[in-house]
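Troubleshooting log. The previous structure file for this entry was overwritten by mistake, so regenerating from the original sequence record. Sequence copied from the archived sheet and checked twice against the printout by T.R.
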Amino acid sequence: MLRIDSVQTITGVQVYGDDHDPYVFYAVPEQPTFRVDDNGKPVFRFLRYRTPKKRRDGTYGGGFATFDVEFSLADTKRDIIMEELKRQVAAARGRPELVRLGTIQWAKGTAQLNMANISGDFVTSVFNPGSPSLYGKNITPFTVELTEEGAVLFEAALKGLGGFVQVVYEMSAWVRLPPLTGTATFDSSKYYDFVQTAKDDAGCGSDTFLNKIREDIWNSEILKVEVTSGMGTDERVRAQIRESLTRTLEDTVAKKMLEQLGHYDGDRTVLEDYETIRREYHKVKIDHFSYTITENAAALYPFNPRGTLPNIVSMIDPAQVGEYFQEIDLDHPFFRRLEVTARVNADFAALSIHSVDLHIDYQGRHSGDLHFSKEDEMLKFSCFKDGGPDEFTYRYRVNFKGASRPYDSPPDLVGKGNEITLNVDDTGLLMVDVEAGAIDARDFPLALVTVRYEPASGPAIEEQYAVTGDKKAYQLRRPIYEPRRAPVKYRIEYHDADGRTLTTGWQDTVRRIYVNTPFRDVKKIHASATGDLTAEIESVTVDISYTDAANDYTVTETFELRKTAASVDWEVPVIDFNAGQVTYSGYVRRYDGSIERIPPTVLEGDSLVVGETFGAVMDVQVVPDQVDFTQVALVTVELRYGDDQYQDVLVRPGETPEPWHVQLTSPSERRYRWSATYYMKDQTERTVPERQSTTAQLVLPALPPA
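Regenerated output below.
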């Protein structure tokens, strides 16, 4: 038997002596390697999938590898070791021809691959029997399935230099121990005490009651390993024996782990009229384990060789790489199938659909019928392609509840791929939802929605729905017995709270109509009176109107300007901000009783000035709404008209500057110049160079270029 303390190293291999026969030796290989067959070729094969293989969990496999790993002594090193041992024996005791290498008595072992713990992004599964053969070359077979990325990585790594696959052997063999004694002991003690004392003093006067419970737990565990040996024992051997004892002790303790003592679960109640109750419960559990190995005893000793296997290209002729690394196509024509998943994308209950029958035909050789009775069903059709294309034909029938006539689709519809979805528009139904959206019933108590659809065959379908504060939603469901391909047209007639009517033009939709307010914007007009409103002009009356002819929408207003109210802002909700026209007329009444007529005039812009210098005044309003005040602290705007009219305007966050009143030299000359300086919060400045404008609303940019 192998003697553990009789060891030497020859050409990197540990060689042990025998405990009885001086001519017998045992060589332990330094690391595992790929196994080679009787012809000297490595037992290895890597197959890369040309078409990724779809797995049951939805992921894709990219390759497959099988190989054998062995833990044995190479023949080249065996010869060198035998030559050295014969030389040593010849010098020591003679008869070198009796020298031989014995067989190690392996008792147990495992082999693990580093790839088994690599991320699932590269390896999908690793199979090996878990234990080497424990005889001969200690062969362990491995099978590895790789993802698409893992197949690329595995092939590139094994074709390069160095190494990639790492194997860890954990072997135990029967050996003869050196003169020593090793003992492993484990002692455990657990104590639990429960004491309850209850007293009830039921005498005259007030009663006193006491219920006292005390629970105590003690726990003590000791693990001990001792190794004693005589003089000359190798310290490495002592350490390995101590490690073996410790592992044996830990494994045994894990198997004999003491159960928890638990707590007292008996009666704890206290009865009335009992003066004293005392309960005691004690539990003790003691466990002891001892394991001893002595001089000349046979014991299991661990050998844990590990290392990186050499790359395959270093073990073969480069011209033979194609024999070990191959590309295969798993998509063989013979096994190809047409797999079609079908479903109906429609609400059976809401659309009064009883069922849908689908017929699929493939090349006139295979056919199948699928019956749908509810919307959440997904049914499958499958057949072998027999070398045919991916295309197939299908037709379907929609059966309606309470209707004698079904809808039959056109025959021989062409499908391709692996999915058929019959949508609502394919079921021969017209489905339109009318619903109140962003509209206030106080402004528009009634909105009449007219819905119209013109099928390819048959009369037009037209319905009208009244959307009010009480009734806000409608559904149009009508069999048309053909696929819905044309758009649904609709128009809305709004009735406001003042009795006015506003009708939109015809619009197109697919399936849903939201009744929102017809107004999408607000047009703002600033009107002001100029002249001597104290001594000359008593008042200015203005009749103003906004007209959107395309939508048949008109709003009119009359207001009076005087000294106490020299300006007014008029806001009109509009359907389209860029459509419509503002016109005004009126008259100027003076204190001397004379009246000056203002003829009907189309307003250009959004500022209206009337009075003494009618048509020759413009109010310029600086609008800072777009300025980025998260970066800007202050803006100064310089305004210039001609040579003698100018004004500097300060713009601060959250403030709206006063308008700049400009006396125009003529109604047609509205050009003015402006520039701006932005004072940034980082103490820098940015400027807008001088430019011209004619608008009454001067909108400042968010930030000028740096």
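The CA atoms of residues 432 and 511 lie 5 Å apart. Archived copy saved in two places this time.
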